[in-house]
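The aim of this short unit is practical: by the end, you should be able to scan a pair of folded records and say something sensible about each. We start with the first protein, listed as its amino acid sequence and then its structure tokens.
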Amino acid sequence: MYLSREEEGIYQGERGETLRRMMEILVALGDIYGAEKLVPVRSVQIAGVSYKNIGEAGLEWISDLEGQVVVPSILNPAGMDLCRWQEMGIQEEFAQKQQQTIEAYRRLGVTIDCTCTPYQIYQGPSSLASPGDHLAWSESSAVSYANSVIGARTNREGGPSALAAALVGKTALYGYHLDENRLPTHLVEVEADLHGSDYGALGFLVGRTVKDGVPFFRLKGQRTVPDELKALGAAMAASGSVALYYVENVTPEPPGPWQPMETIRLGRKEIDEIYALYPAGGANAVALGCPHCSSEELEKIAGLLQGQKVQKELWVCTARKIAEAHPQLVAIIEESGACVFCDTCMVVSPATERFSRMMTSSGKALAYLPGLAGVGAGLGSLEECIDVALGRRQ
């Protein structure tokens, strides 16, 4: 892999041990994947934040690093709400370790926005991603959204490689940074009217089928909104490892001509089968906001809960900046007895493990809850989830 004179100097340790180690990570990745060179990145989103996932070894590794990030860099969700962790049922020992992890990142200059939806809190002139930008993002659904909806370019980075990119300002030029790897592999024709959580169910189904492919969706002539695209990509990234997809006449187009290796045809029957396989029955909690709720989603939830009281524990997860921008919506939701938690989600928090089964509207959570939290999961529409929380249905 070609390195410039400056990059070679970093690799040789001329700018300190931390940057030398970070460049070693980037060069190793480049060698493995056949990258010709490094490329500057506009922003970085770093995984490996929840102490539940990284443990003591991860905390020690981050704490040993020195220096400052050189591009805008934010964090993936942590293992708890950084302010209201006691309400989640988090033990003090875990909370201390989580705060130490956050402080280690803060010392490196990382902005403490713990969210899987950075594109929802940074828009316009402060945006972290625009079409064609090279990024080094980590969280699976954020990677999918950046590649597919925004039209930026990023691989799904691990925590160490993302942090290396943040400190060096570059990443290896391979994978989804290159046009030839951004061509669709599967054509998915959907003959069904889709609404809300149907996009998560569709993504859950397609991700298991195409695995790490690049699906091109031909939907039944309907308008999609960003939250639906967010749900679709998040589910495919969780049930498979899809990092890029296309929706005809909606998302940016592929970079060149293509022919699908396979055509998949799906209808209402296949989508309904996902709901039937993962019913709500037996759920002792409801979790919304995976990926983190947008302001529009908070508004819908507030409207469904206004003036009512929940009978089961209901979590609504969102980015702190979203919650702080809409205090009136948060107040309506919490007046029902539900909790709006920031910085975290049901997938990465150990607080989830006290439940035996959670109801969710998220295809991503449906895939991750059993494997990462050991919690059974049921899938339903937003309205059905609220009905479960209010005790209207079992």
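Turning to the second protein, read its sequence before its tokens, just as you did above.
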Amino acid sequence: MSTIVSNVYLIFINALNYFRDAVSQHILFAIGILLIAGYILGKVAEKLHLPIITGYIISGILLGESIGAVIELKMVQSLRPITEVALGLIALVIGGEFSKAKLRAIGKEVVIITLFQIGITFILVSLALNLLGFMFEFSLLLGAIATATAPAATVAIVQNLRARGKFIDYLYSLVALDDAGSVILFGMVFAFVGTIVSKAHGTSIASGIMITNAFLEILLSLIIGFIGGYILHKVTYKKHNKSEIMIMSLGIIFIIIGLAHPLHISPLLTNMMVGATLVNFSPKNQRISRILETLTPPIYAAFFAIAGTELQLGIFANPQILLLGIVFVIIRMIGKYSGVYLGALKSKSNIKIRNYLGICMFPQAGVAIGLVLMIQASPIIAQANIQIQNLAITMVNIVIFSVFINELLGPVLSKWAIIKGSELSE
């Protein structure tokens, strides 16, 4: 009898494994599982008064390979277009807040706040990690990466709450300027660190190349974004059919995303420029964001769930990463909040901006991971000794740890801050 039961069990397990291997390779199956899991856990999150995106992220963690899910989702590369489309839509929404009228009203204040929060975060994180014994040059790099913020969580929460007003105008502007400032700061710090490391190891990489590349990336992103925004304005301005406007808008966004990789430009900055160009040619173009908003719920659900699958729980087993990661997260939060507070104080912004805007800067995701992976893949690191290469790996793990914590805690704190800052009721 036991032999029969054992054979039936083996047949069932083999069938289950066969089914898993057959369907888990199909991108539509993976997307379907992500959407359903994200929907269920998103509802649970709402019941607990948490941001819905927290549920999406947790669904991705539960389905990720790091905890041995029953369904093996090998989808990081195959689902990358969804991530890029989501970021493109998010960037367009943020860029659409950069109208000339709003910039005249808050431009100077936001620039001051941005400079304060980037500068203070960079200094505090760099010093804290160096005091813990982390190599000075790499502490500077992590300090620069700490300045980056995740716009996706911010936009998703704002849209879910349907928040509007001066606080949101400041928030969108700050997030956009923060990303541009982070890229510039990182390029300058990486050039400085690269010079020191390359000289120490006898390699010859020009020190000014990375700074030049950072500025060229931003300049080219803005030029292409302006061209894309102008074309989209011309082809949709006289149209009234929402379907036609949606098709043309998605076409432009997809083309820009496709151009970003071969041209080595930022799709985030480029699509922000598209949104800014549209709203400054005509306020009527704001309808494009409203039309595209009907597509965002499933795209955002898949985007945040995919982000969750990339968070590796194994990093919690390393005491060094745990210590450095906790310090990185805490000091970064202190730097972001105090930087925004002091910048708002300097620019004489109102009390809501001072008290709550800094909390909205806590989420951190794709930009930070992209920057640290750029370091790891750099020829400077590849030509250095094993100690430097191991430090680069440690940096990657610290940033992944930070993203893990900030993607779970950040949206919760941001939602609370947006409600308070915008004077919404729960």
